[in-house]
């Protein structure tokens, strides 16, 4: 079984985002970018399935600018076998990404597509679900456990009340939650080996997908700064403060 793993290059999760002065988005100039953390978990899960003998090939895909190739090389260094880079400098919305992934899935016929549950830059949490709809495949989202069982896959999902397990027949879509696994670091020899793994260069046009945005971002603002707290001397004083201000400072 082949596994397709879409990986997105995003602002590194350790970097504090700065909003552009004109409020049109987050300033990405000269900041560290990395693979979306949920996608690292997806790559790791695909590698574990291959190590268990449940998968034969892992193909990483990224839609984005030239530098997205670095993200793909990271996936290759972790253990993916080959990569597809769909190059565009445009901001690509989840629907357009899902349409590109559908075209790739039609060509590659994977048994599983494992995506992150969300990209930490746009927090859309849409691409996996849209891809499942476009392909008409079953989906197991927010996975905390994935077990391949013949031609089906059991996905344990983190839901509000606890855990739910769904059985999907393959081909299927899985999206990863934080507790699914702890991704490995790429070792230096594997980083070197990754440089010679195949990486195909494509464009959205090759898949007949128009990436023109359908949404307009009207404003982006930083979260309000928290004001400093105060110390109270007693429970009575605390209750009085809460009554007075309506909040716990
Ligand atoms: P989102 O719906 O934007 O929150 O993204 C969910 C998941 O879709 C991500 O974790 C990735 O696995 C995948 N994805 C989204 N955008 C891209 C992209 N530009 N290239 C590759 N994969 C993507």
Q: Give the topology string: H per helix, E per strand.
A: EEEHEHEHEHEEEEHEH
Task: Tell the overall outline.
Answer: globular
Distance between the termini: 55 Å
> Which CATH architecture?
3-Layer(aba) Sandwich
Record field, number of beta strands: 11
Characterise the protein shown here.
- This protein is an alpha/beta fold and 249 residues long.
- The chain has a single domain, classed as HUPs (Rossmann fold), CATH 3.40.50.620.
- 27% of the residues lie in helices and 27% in strands.
- It has helices at 37-51, 68-78, 94-108, 127-135, 188-194, 235-245; strands spanning 2-6, 9-11, 33-35, 57-64, 82-87, 112-116, 138-149, 152-159, 162-169, 172-176, 199-202.
- A 9-stranded mixed beta sheet has the order 9-8-7-10-6-1-4-5-11, sandwiched between helices.
- Helix 2 links the parallel strand 4 (57-64) and strand 5 (82-87).
- Helix 2 (68-78) packs across helix 5 and helix 3 (94-108) crosses helix 4.
- The protein is globular and about 65 Å long.
- The termini are far apart.
- The model has no long low-confidence stretch (mean pLDDT 95).
- Bound molecules: adenosine monophosphate (AMP).
- The site of adenosine monophosphate (AMP) has 24 residues, from helix 1, strand 4, helix 3, strand 6 and helix 4.
